[in-house]
Amino acid sequence: MGYTAAVAGASGYVGGELLRLLLAHPDIEVGALTAGGNAGTRLGQHHPHLVPLADRVLAETTPETLSGHDIVFLALPHGQSAALAARLDEDTLVVDCGADFRLTDAAAWKRFYGSDHAGTWPYGLPELPGARGALARTRRIAVPGCYPTCGTLALLPALAEELVEPEAVVVAASGTSGAGKAAKPHLIASEVMGSASVYGVGGAHRHNPEFTQNLSAVAGVPVRVSFTPVLVPMPRGILATCSAPLRPGVDADAARAAYLRHYDAEPFVHLLPGGSWPTTAMTLGANTAIVQVTVDDAAGRLVAVAAIDNLTKGTAGGAIQSANIALGLPETTGLPMTGVAP
Amino acid sequence: MGYTAAVAGASGYVGGELLRLLLAHPDIEVGALTAGGNAGTRLGQHHPHLVPLADRVLAETTPETLSGHDIVFLALPHGQSAALAARLDEDTLVVDCGADFRLTDAAAWKRFYGSDHAGTWPYGLPELPGARGALARTRRIAVPGCYPTCGTLALLPALAEELVEPEAVVVAASGTSGAGKAAKPHLIASEVMGSASVYGVGGAHRHNPEFTQNLSAVAGVPVRVSFTPVLVPMPRGILATCSAPLRPGVDADAARAAYLRHYDAEPFVHLLPGGSWPTTAMTLGANTAIVQVTVDDAAGRLVAVAAIDNLTKGTAGGAIQSANIALGLPETTGLPMTGVAP
Amino acid sequence: MGYTAAVAGASGYVGGELLRLLLAHPDIEVGALTAGGNAGTRLGQHHPHLVPLADRVLAETTPETLSGHDIVFLALPHGQSAALAARLDEDTLVVDCGADFRLTDAAAWKRFYGSDHAGTWPYGLPELPGARGALARTRRIAVPGCYPTCGTLALLPALAEELVEPEAVVVAASGTSGAGKAAKPHLIASEVMGSASVYGVGGAHRHNPEFTQNLSAVAGVPVRVSFTPVLVPMPRGILATCSAPLRPGVDADAARAAYLRHYDAEPFVHLLPGGSWPTTAMTLGANTAIVQVTVDDAAGRLVAVAAIDNLTKGTAGGAIQSANIALGLPETTGLPMTGVAP
Amino acid sequence: MGYTAAVAGASGYVGGELLRLLLAHPDIEVGALTAGGNAGTRLGQHHPHLVPLADRVLAETTPETLSGHDIVFLALPHGQSAALAARLDEDTLVVDCGADFRLTDAAAWKRFYGSDHAGTWPYGLPELPGARGALARTRRIAVPGCYPTCGTLALLPALAEELVEPEAVVVAASGTSGAGKAAKPHLIASEVMGSASVYGVGGAHRHNPEFTQNLSAVAGVPVRVSFTPVLVPMPRGILATCSAPLRPGVDADAARAAYLRHYDAEPFVHLLPGGSWPTTAMTLGANTAIVQVTVDDAAGRLVAVAAIDNLTKGTAGGAIQSANIALGLPETTGLPMTGVAP
């Protein structure tokens, strides 16, 4: 137990997933648990599945309650991390699960989030080229959005090796936990069960600029991305169906070879054997991304599919993976490689 | 009750949906109910929700049991309709819910279905240009596939009015009933609930040539289509997210205007008010297609989304809609305009 | 179209289901649609599945907006019906889908609802002995609760024919729409999907006194009832598993014979063939109750199971069934006998 | 890694769950994986969520492939364990997840399973009085059925402390994975999603004699049990709603005190704070049972509810818990105390 970690926003879904994973982490001990409106309540009220922490009472989220830890995980609504982080010790490892420090483009931030840009922190997707080096040297980490994590891992080898033109279509089916715990009319069970729906269509979703940023960085040229999220009746999981126009001469074997090269050594990215395709059930509760690729000659497109658990690899697990790197621990420490199925 | 209808394949999902709708049809009386392996059993065993027909016993599917009706609906595995239809009276209206007579391209049929092409019947998607005329004069109707119905209705105005380049990406989330009633390991509830998955990726699904046929007919030029079906945990419904590269100068208003022009008079296609997006729940049990369209300027694509119930507008309802036309009845006769929600 | 009907509370789930059914009713025309907080909005915003009424604007719920109709259906939170009903014409048929006028026992009302008892109207469960006569003569109808409808139909013949001792255990699995459309934290999809839960345990649910009232009326002696509702991940449907101690000499054949006698002529209660058991899917969208009974000799109990759609037979359909009786129409007019499955 | 374990029946759900848990067990190493019809295939084909074992090939289930391990877990269809176990070394710890050795009453076995009784092994529910002692001394363990595990833990303190009469009603909602992986028509997703159903009604389910055996052992007198399983649309989880007639003078406080006494020191049984009730989501993937109790004075019954994950505490986790005891390891070794929610 070398390190202690505070979790701000412990009563939400991301906070709960961080705690579930930290309870199994051999080198990190759970410290302060804080919340906003839920301060003063028992954790067991919000996360009865976390039996060992059920009687812990949530403190208020303040710089004081969070101080004195080696690591602070922020699981807050966007816009709240900057002020808090500014008052945390520079030596504290601050891992922001929100959006505030993900984007490098201040104008894009303003356009999609409406407020002034808080800045940019090293981006916590270790599988991106160069990311591990930056994460190893930082005390501040911006955890990626769940959709960009999934879609970027699906398309990374294709764009990095120039198998496709720099334009992508991503349609991603997602479970409901990505929308958080707030009770909104369109998210009540009666509306969701038995129904699939789209939202943020036509480039309106806030993960759009993050997609553009990631895929362009991988490709080395600007990539145009059409991204549509689809809400489907399951609590967890994202399945991203991604495609892009094939460059001449690229066939299925070349595509597969590129994906194997890129992902063979990645501990949390698993390329399925040929002919098998990802399902979100394969990843439930695990920090894995399951990937497959093929080409559609008639349509002239490469098609890649990735599945993740939006709360694990998509947020809390990815956060701990990056924290492991920043702490100098083995990257896989304490992170589940297996899902819970069926 | 001007007409009588036999239903071949009455124990399957399409057969059951045909019967549900026919029970509410004022001008068609349910006649013979036939089946293959389930011949001799009570209908109530297979469709306990069809209480008024629960005690009807299924006859064997033969030309003899089907003869003597004004209409014969065939809800059979593909490859079985041709031989049967050949032995039915030429004056009988034969409506094939299977794939056998949908494609005009014999080579495409052979490639995707493996057998020799049986022929081509008038295609039962009344919303396609020219379709109503052909349906009014025929005694043989090929009911479209559920995915092509949904995707074609999503993209029809965009391609017909040349708002987009002739290449489309369709990613369609579907409920499980489209896979039929056969018990296959990947379709058992434990595997499906809580999970999203893809199949037929890379142009492998049999509905690919039908997509190409429909969209090319609408566009007047060959259209390349990348189609990926996504299985999501719900019994019914298809939500097709479709996009295509915008032609210069096309904006959201122009797109919407085109869709309004095409669909304003269509009884079963409902363009939502701006800002609202389709959900499959809106269509459950109804013969409606719910559509919305926008443009993504940053990505340079038009994005259109359509929702249908795969068993109703996607198969059995569409079949009856086309049959109404062929019989000279008002097209909407007996078909539900409202879904069952939540 | 002999009659017009107003629907108060049209934006909720019961209001929506009333409208879905009224649109298919040959003798009732939809009149005013009213709401509380949602007054002034389009119906299509709340019930996009009701395409033909999508552009109707909701009026405010007042005696004035509701007046001038032959029938007024009230689908309001409990406690709001009495004041409104007092100001509606005595000749207007007022059908209250809420709880206000269900109970005969003022003390029980006070204990479970906390307010003063508003009174008692004829109880709209036509299958109860004597109910049809009372309904035929009234202009005021109290629609039963969904759980009591289901559980009462399950146990009615057993208690009426004294097959069992007057004490019953009812455990009823329910979909989420019974909880209405209000966004509450424990009803969001992420919490409900993949989970079963109990509530109102130990006699705390408000339907308890209604159970006692119904079952005691049937038995002719006071019946003790232990009722536990179980929330399960589906939008609609109630499956009530009911049992009671067998009286000496009662076997499965006797039980079945009693159920057949009671339900053979009931248009909306369907006793399954021996060996088949109800599922809620059999009733989705239908006004049917599906019932089965057996005895457990080892446990010394009769076990009866009933399934209904909580919004149809359980509320809106039952309301129209009773209204049909009060209007002198055939009881089955306009009510679906078939469910939507799968 | 003191011990090695073979898993027979590795391709099924219980086998998969055993492997998921064993991968996280610090003292047990996964040895041979065997199967029946699936011998020769990759484990990844059956359990793609078990990424670290994906490329292991299944051997055939024989005494030879299973020999040479410290522990053999049998996850086989009932009736297959006896012959196999007879040929395994007496010093090998054999843990049978099937039903073969659970019952002490040979006649009950014959009546419910149809074959001759194979014998009785120490019963692997450590929370039963006296169970831990027997398990500590044995090399043969019969893992309880999932329903009896859940219902017994719900009622144990009430019967042990004579709070209730010796007759119980258990209605247990279950996810589908308890039915295993075989593709049966009523278990396909289209049939299950959106529907609740009963089966094995009237004392017909094979877990009935096991309920009687457990509850009678706890009570010290014969207990009559009425048990009804309810299938609900979720992959995992059992929620047992249990009740029994109160003895005179027992109130809610006395009931709670008894439950606290019994469960305070149990590592895997968690009594919720007063007013909170179990949900299956609290237990998903965990080896915990979540319990609550109250009394219904009007009905004169004690009502207790327990939730478990049928595959974890209900089978594979319970199996490892008992194995830990038999091996002399701390009982909680390697077993998850936290669920995966939402």
Automatic annotation (TrEMBL), chains A, B, C, D:
Pathway: Amino-acid biosynthesis; L-arginine biosynthesis; N(2)-acetyl-L-ornithine from L-glutamate: step 3/4. The active site is at residue 146. SMART domains: Semialdhyde_dh. It comes from the Bacteria. Keywords: Amino-acid biosynthesis, Arginine biosynthesis, Cytoplasm, NADP, Oxidoreductase. Its EC number is 1.2.1.38. One of its GO terms (cellular component) is cytoplasm. PROSITE patterns: ARGC. Pfam families: Semialdhyde_dh (PF01118), Semialdhyde_dhC_1 (PF22698). The keyword NADP applies. One of its GO terms (biological process) is L-arginine biosynthetic process. It catalyses: N-acetyl-L-glutamate 5-semialdehyde + phosphate + NADP(+) = N-acetyl-L-glutamyl 5-phosphate + NADPH + H(+). PANTHER family: N-ACETYL-GAMMA-GLUTAMYL-PHOSPHATE REDUCTASE, CHLOROPLASTIC-RELATED, N-ACETYL-GAMMA-GLUTAMYL-PHOSPHATE REDUCTASE, CHLOROPLASTIC-RELATED-RELATED. Catalyzes the NADPH-dependent reduction of N-acetyl-5-glutamyl phosphate to yield N-acetyl-L-glutamate 5-semialdehyde. Belongs to the NAGSA dehydrogenase family. Type 1 subfamily. This is N-acetyl-gamma-glutamyl-phosphate reductase. It comes from Thermobifida halotolerans.
